[in-house]
Amino acid sequence: MPRNPTKDRTEDRPRSYVLAGQRIEPPRLAAGLHLVATPIGNLRDITLRALETLAAADAIACEDSRVTRKLLEHYCIATPLTPYHEHNAGAARPKLLARLAAGEAIALVSDAGTPLVSDPGFKLVRAACEAGSSVSALPGPSAALAALAVAGLPTDRFFFEGFLPPKDGARRTRIAELACIPATLILYESGPRIGRALEALAEGLGPRQAAVCRELTKLHEEIRRGDLMALAQAYDENARHAAEIRGEFCVVIAPPSADAGQPGAGEVDALLRRALRHASVKDAVSDVAAATGRPRREIYQRALALSEDQESEDAAEP
């Protein structure tokens, strides 16, 4: 059924927003799916086009209605919310697609930042495109790009990883794969896991320069810069003065040195020692071989030698 233009202006809710104390009625919004970037912390970090779209849409598909409602209330927007997140996406997606097919304008937002970055919006966009619905993007805030901009690290080439695997083995394997990427790395992490993630990154990538960005654009924004070893120590939960872990984190890591080439024997041994603290010889060899590009047999022989040296040192202690 085509969209009814009369219904748009006879609904009970106002299609408007308030900015600087002035109520503004937005222009009519075209039917289709509108991907709206929202603030990552500071509610003033929103575009005029985003406000117009949120106010004029027939509905806003959001991850957490409590989060999105705070933004809408700040600008006096009365557009109804409908949940769309990883737990209900299978059931909610067909309903949203049906509304799009009927000629409605649907805005899609994430809890913060640009939709589809570490959220379930991709499948909805793909399905909407396949169904012939219009899909448009409204660019705006992004935690990954904000962190990259303030990190003080190379910006000409970067790789967005998102969240590392939570389990130790899978995380070590993924970090070993990331070690060979010739670009600045950008990762997301939660407060409870930031310490262990930095420790694993230091073990797998060595003393690369990095920045840990916490609560970007918010009142208590914090940016710590240094090498991964020092940052891991700063967030060590056993340290006497551990860094604050409340809030959202974005970690930016420098690329491998362009003139580094293959690491020397000393660096290989250092990587192996760190890996052997938490992994078996087999896993440590796999991780270090992937990270350095050296032959697995060579790494295995060094691992055996280091293990024998450690056993000798332990036996020699009184």
Q: Bin the helical content.
A: 40-55%
How many H/I helical runs?
12
- Number of DSSP-assigned strands: 12
Beta fraction: 15-25%
Attribute tags:
5-stranded mixed sheet; 318 residues; alpha/beta; 5-stranded parallel sheet
Walkthrough of the structure:
The chain has 318 residues and is of the alpha/beta class. It has helices spanning 5-8, 48-56, 65-74, 89-101, 121-130, 143-150, 168-178, 194-205, 228-234, 265-276, 281-292, 296-316; strands at residues 17-19, 22-24, 32-36, 59-62, 81-83, 105-108, 135-138, 158-163, 184-190, 209-214, 222-227, 248-253. It has a 5-stranded parallel sheet with strand order 5-4-6-3-7, with helices on both faces. α4 packs parallel to α5 and α7 crosses α8. Mean pLDDT is 89; it is low at 4-10.
Overview in brief:
By secondary structure, the protein is an alpha/beta fold. The chain is 41% helix and 18% strand.
